[in-house]
TrEMBL record, chains A, B:
Phylogenetic classification of the source organism: Bacteria, Pseudomonadati, Pseudomonadota, Gammaproteobacteria, Oceanospirillales
Keywords: DNA damage, DNA recombination, DNA repair, Metal-binding, Zinc, Zinc-finger
Protein name per UniProt: Recombination protein RecR
Residue ranges of every copy of the Toprim domain listed in the record: 81-175
NCBIfam families noted in UniProt: recR
GO MF assignments: DNA binding; zinc ion binding
Keyword Transmembrane in annotation: no
PROSITE patterns named in the record: TOPRIM
């Protein structure tokens, strides 16, 4: 946009790194921050730079936190017996909504040799140590149902064989409210293969 | 969210000042900034704090810029004869898309006695001075078609009476592609009253 000043243009461009924000919305955000809510913008700058400086990984589950341990690992009321393995922090939040009361382990990715992501990057040694040391009875594999996600789960399952823990995988099938007609073939095949006795 | 660390929660809250960003999207943005694009996040902090420090108002049209004059006022190729009065910088960008090649004057608001916004806050003295000094031949009033926007236009029209400039108002009517059936009564009344000979 030649009609915006260079510095504002640069701000617009910096805002397009946000997911779901294209050039047009970035423009709207930039003008809002500079024109309508400067105090909010100052606060955002402060919080974001503080968070970038201080937030690291939980020593136990690897989730994002500015403390040594995240609030979930710190919560004595939760059970150590179930450990749910997910790929990202956002997935922890998603599973939290189900009322799950166990612990988590966040991989921050999935095995992907082509991108140079091997077991060490996902902290799988640390995962194994957690399972052995913390009295985990069930490891719930909740990686995404993609090729790499499935491969990651398989790898973890093999790694933990012999550790005397139950290893489970979350169910894949037709989503509630989903109509069979609109469900893709792969999901439907999973749903059929995973059928259970009607009770 | 008890499952997010306090600092991340504060960042989420700071992000909800963005227009169109609710708690859920703010969470997604926060995790994206901290987890997936830290370099982009650092860049955003830098640009936003720089813009907050340096961006002020163009001396001529009051639009946002970090320089003395904005790129539009600085552009010698544009005509001084037409001056378009708008409420916000975003509206400058909207009108730029029509190919308008005149100048602008940005009010940064509209007359609203109840909010304590009078003529001096909108820089109307400065507007008058521009009109007189810069050889403006036509002032195009493009304030929004709200009660305050209309009142603001009316005020400006009265203020400029006797300055020997043509004062026009952008047309209001049925939008292109709009179906009469779905257009509100006020707009339709405007469209009827503003009818023109068919040529």
């Amino acid at each position: 946009m030649a009609s915006l000043s260079p510095l504002i243009n640069e701000l617009v461009e910096a805002l397009t790194i946000l997911p779901g924000v294209g050039p047009k919305s970035a423009q709207r955000l930039a003008l809002h921050l500079l024109e309508k809510d400067q105090s909010g913008a100052h606060r955002l700058v402060g919080m974001l730079s503080k968070a970038l400086d201080e937030v690291g990984h939980c020593k136990k589950c690897r989730n994002l936190t500015e403390k040594e341990y995240c609030p979930i690992c710190d919560d004595a009321k939760r059970t150590d017996e179930q450990l749910c393995v997910v790929e990202t922090p956002a997935e922890v939040l998603a599973i939290e909504q189900t009322g799950f009361k166990g612990r988590y382990f966040v991989l921050f990715g999935r095995l992907s040799p082509i991108d140079g992501i091997g077991p060490e990057k996902l902290g799988l040694d640390q995962l194994k140590q957690q399972v052995v040391e913390n009295g985990v009875k069930e490891v719930i594999l909740a990686t995404n149902p993609t090729v790499e996600g499935q491969a990651t789960s398989q790898y973890i399952q093999q790694m933990l064989q012999g550790s005397n823990v139950l290893i489970t995988r979350i169910a894949h099938g037709v989503p509630l409210g989903g109509e069979l007609e609109y469900v893709d073939g792969g999901t439907l095949a999973h749903a059929l293969a995973g059928r259970k006795a009607f009770d």
